[in-house]
UniProtKB/TrEMBL annotation:
This is YfhO family protein. It comes from the Bacteria. Signal peptide: none annotated. The chain crosses the membrane at residues 20-41, 134-156, 163-181, 233-251, 263-282, 324-342, 349-368, 388-409, 421-442, 807-828. Keywords: Membrane, Transmembrane, Transmembrane helix. It comes from Mesorhizobium calcicola.
Amino acid sequence: MNVLATETSMQNEALLKQPSFLRHAVSMALLFVLVLGIAGVNPFRQTLAPMDLLLAYPGWDNAGIDTPLVNIERSDALDHRLPNWREFRRELREGHIPLWNPIHQLGAVGIQAPIFEGLSIPFLIYALTPNEAMGYTFAILANYLLAAFGTYFLLFFMFRNRLAAVFGATVFAFCGFNIAWAHWPHVTTGALIPWVLATQLRYWQTGRLSWALGFSFSVALMALGGFPFVALLGAMSSLTLAVVLLCAELWSTGINQLAVRRAMGLGCAGIAGAFLALPGLLQVKDILGSTDLSSRTGGTWFTPYDIIYMFGFDFVNHFRVERIFSAGAPAALLALLALCLIFKFPNRFAFFGLIVAIFMLATVFGAAPAEFVEAIPGFGFNAWSRGSILFGLSAAILSSYTLSIMLSSKESVSPLKINSSYKLHAVLFLCVLQSINLGYWFRQYNARPDIDTFFPITPSISYVLSKILPGQSVVADDSFLVSGFLSNYRLPELFAHGFRTDAQRKIIADILPSYQTTYTASVIQCFDINFSSRDITYAAIRFLLIKDNCVDLDYETSGTGQRATLPLNSGALKGDLLIDKSMNATNVQVLLATYDQDFAPSAVTLDLYRDALLVAHAELPPEAIRNNQFATFRFNQDVPLAAGTYRYIISMIKPDSEKPLSAWAFETAGGATYQVGSNVFPGMPMIKIGDRVRTPQNFSTASVEPGISVIENHAVSGSAYYVNDLSGQPDADYGPVHLATYRPDDLTVEYSGATHGWVVFPIRINEDWRATLDGKPVELKKFLDFFPAVEVSGRSKIRFYYDSSHLLKTLELCIAGFAASVILLIVLTGRTSRPRTTG
């Protein structure tokens, strides 16, 4: 008790000595340089946008730009964050508040929904910067600077040592979690956690109203950061700090009026922040309310033994976003040292860091029973491993605590009796070493391509942009990787990244039965597209961008077991294929093995015979053959194959190559055999024959660039259509409906027909959409339980608009609640804004 009281007294004595502005400025400047050095990007020539992933896919082969691929786990930035940010930015710069986003899955709430980060500081920076690529770089850097500066103030308020605070700030800002999730709202949200804790602590120490208001705004910004689970972790950390401060107060001086008033003041400030964030949080509630979250469950990637990766081994052995958490080897060593020092030199803030570490070990690393963890609010449908951001927080606090003791000049506190200048230089060296360590990891995970790579236009994209109309949309196959990438070009995609309603899933499953890659993302194979689906026309999908050589697998060998054939170095691979139906073959695929070599040791040919007649020939260069992957032998033209037996011969052009090449084969295949050289074996090589995808008559194909085909659906000729019934599968007639005016949240169409029916605008709406018919409000129905529809009986003008009155009423009530909370806070604060004389 006496030791803790002494430590508290020392903290308060130091608090009374106001630090010089110049020293803080120097510390902040040092931290600023360290952050920029760790990121290592020149924003005037490079961008932190993951264009390396975009340009790695065939859809951009003709953009004339090439850049090395650094990380494949950055697709969410390209199919979710940036499409929404680009739309919000465009609307704001045109003078409109984007309350509705027509790009996201054919329609979604706009900037007011926190899950799109439109109410965040990084987005504000991105929107205000004239150059988009530069703006995105500044937005990413803003998150790291926010995290670093917030942590600096938190640690300085805790330990009163600037250099220790600088070190700890880099630890949290660039912990493995923040490096790995650089392009997700996880970091936007987590960067505000230190600000919440710093303002909370400073108000407790000084009682000043300004810090209480800072706490309110920090809470609001954290809640609006875009990832509720990380915000929940921040709220739990704040509550834990409050408990630690109260317990320290009771331990040192007992209950007193000042402590009670400040605790109540913090409660009012927190409620005020919640009122500021409430309108946005209600938008998230509405979105999640219409979404089936049953597939989202708790659990963690880690075991208690994985804590050893805090030294950075995870960056080597587990180079995956969900597995990275280390905050650098120097920070890990200092944090472990703190566990030894904390009992000799007790400190309530070090105990707080220890409590956070214990909570993290119990949840993130699965040390606690799963049923206990799942009982914690929010942990039942979130991956617990994403709580590893708390490792960065606890490591920052504990390492800063260790350094503050090492740098202390008082023998009663510091165990190191070394000249102060030596200790200072040693800590500066640790800061540099830590920055080099984190900078290396940051660049291993985050690309820095040239600024000119930022969303280049290709001939196919340009062609579609010149023809598409409002309300119309596109589908892109895996040539463009994940659905949603083309939304960056203001091309709406029904399959884009995001939560999907039950009605939406029915529509997209009819268009593409295998649409779902993850719960929120889709990677489309062109041969899986059901071109005969009426829902393609109902959803106003006018263009489909697919690979030029898109084929359907019309024939595939089958059998049981698998083994590698003798190397083709021993002779050609020969055998018979029994084809049971006629087809037009465009290619033959064979599963080959290069024995862990980057490519084949020789070019390979494939010949296909019908009796003695050579019907097809193809050759592949060595670099087109990869280990344990299907090699595709493409024919110069479609090869008509009638039903019957064909002879295949697969040969190496240079069979005398020292390195082997084999095919994979089924061990048994209904009595079939194959031959390598003069040796005959039971089984069948793994072979597929592809037939070109056929489209109905209302589709046409344009090849405006090599490798990509743009298929146009001529049934979609306008922006809205007429149906004679809302049930069944009526014909969609775009002819009698004309788009008169258009804004994303307010549009008018004119129906020129004379028959009774329904006018449908092919966007996804929610309960805040309204409609008028010839200026009079009418009931808004839904077609396919998804698209808005208005009943018509003849020539008429229909207006669809997004009604924001409910949002405005909620905002007014929340502002009133915020004002009431602040007034109560002012009353509670009173004249007590002076440094505390106890913890």
